[in-house]
């Protein structure tokens, strides 16, 4: 199975549970959800490391289940939902504090990935990275009035299109490599190759967001509004 298909295998079953999880988890305290889901993230991350060590990293079949099995990614979805609830309904923090959280998170990510050759591999595991990305996301969500750059229309658009980037970046990588391979005389430096691929992903993701995702959102929202009067008429009849 190609990696582009694996993105769907991992993502669709998990995100399909979102409506059910919203109703079920609404009864749980948000801090309990954060703590419980993080413990499960740490446990599933430990399982991946142990499984891959046992399997010997001998080929695709060895990392297929621990990397893409949907239920292993469910705690991460729950953690993200709890973090969103905390931001929307929790105690309001000052924009400066949000900016500080964003800065600390970005700084830690730069240190971890820039110094990857010096640091142990577990420093790039979900157990370590999830809290750091939580700092970036939670901090950035409330830092708009303090960090004006984040409120520019271009960054708002990129934020809206970020899910398309997440879903499409691997399939688009195969398309990009096929496109480049079709021009044998083209020789690009690695940094230029990455920048062009990155621009390609951003461009396609923005188009998909505007031409596919946004109309689908409006269509789904319209069906939701229409279902209320129809249900009322059916009950009255």
UniProtKB/TrEMBL annotation:
Ranges that cross the membrane: 38-57, 63-88, 100-119, 125-143, 150-168, 188-209
Cross-referenced Pfam families: Acyl_transf_3
Coiled coil: none
Domain of life: Bacteria
Name recorded for this polypeptide: Acyltransferase 3 domain-containing protein
GO molecular function annotation: acyltransferase activity, transferring groups other than amino-acyl groups
Higher taxonomy: Bacteria, Pseudomonadati, Pseudomonadota, Alphaproteobacteria, Hyphomicrobiales
UniProt domain Acyltransferase: residue ranges: 15-209
């Amino acid at each position: 199975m190609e990696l582009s298909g694996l993105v769907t295998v991992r993502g669709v079953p998990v995100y399909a549970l979102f409506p059910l999880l919203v109703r079920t988890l609404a009864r749980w305290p948000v801090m309990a959800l954060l703590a419980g889901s993080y413990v499960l993230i740490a446990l599933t991350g430990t399982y991946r490391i142990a499984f891959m060590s046992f399997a010997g990293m001998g080929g695709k079949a060895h990392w297929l289940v621990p990397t893409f099995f949907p239920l292993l990614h469910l705690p991460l979805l729950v953690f993200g939902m709890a973090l969103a609830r905390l931001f929307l309904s929790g105690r309001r923090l000052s924009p400066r504090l949000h900016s500080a959280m964003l800065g600390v998170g970005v700084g830690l990510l730069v240190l971890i990935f820039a110094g990857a050759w010096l640091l142990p591999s577990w420093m790039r595991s979900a157990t370590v990275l999830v809290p750091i990305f939580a700092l970036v996301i939670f901090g950035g969500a409330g830092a708009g009035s303090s960090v004006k750059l984040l409120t520019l229309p271009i960054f708002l658009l990129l934020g809206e299109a970020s899910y398309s980037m997440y879903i499409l970046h691997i399939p688009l990588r195969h398309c990009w490599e096929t496109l480049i391979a079709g021009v044998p005389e083209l020789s690009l430096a690695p940094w230029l190759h990455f920048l062009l691929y990155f621009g390609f992903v951003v461009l396609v993701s923005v188009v998909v967001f505007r031409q596919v995702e946004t109309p689908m959102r409006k269509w789904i929202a319209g069906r939701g509004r229409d279902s209320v009067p129809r249900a009322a008429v059916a009950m009255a009849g």
